[in-house]
Amino acid sequence: xxxxxxxxxxxxxxxxxxxxxxxxxxxxxxxxxxxxxxxxxxxxxxxxxxxxxxxxxxxxxxxxxxxxxxxxxxxxxxxxxxxxxxxxxxxxxxxxxxxxxxxxxxxxxxxxxxxxxxxxxxxxxxxxxxxxxxxxxxxxxx
Length: 142
Description:
By secondary structure, this protein is an alpha+beta fold. It has one domain (2-133). The protein has helices at 8-11, 15-21, 65-69, 73-83, 90-101, 119-133, and strands at 2-3, 26-30, 38-45, 50-57, 85-87. Strand 3 (38-45) and strand 4 (50-57) form a beta hairpin.
């Protein structure tokens, strides 16, 4: 588990907006590319629920839809919050892991997550998620 401000995603373009959108979450997993054009893909806990969200960004209005639309920080944060997938309980979370990230045979969207999760990695992710949902780990304040 990683505090939001220590993640690569927080350093990406729109990282500040994501921090606001998701209440400066604890991150369980991320795959982010910090550059003038890049992407962020996060699985986190916002203090109430687990969530998954990913975004891409460009370096100019020609390759960045938020910049091209003239969206302000508040609207970007609201769009992020509304576009995330949320899990209120561990059963929903495990079903998502199996259906979306699953294994080499059944992962529908391996590009969207870590791809194949080893049994050990999956167990650790589920254990951390349970701790967060059960209140054993409290969200960090920034």
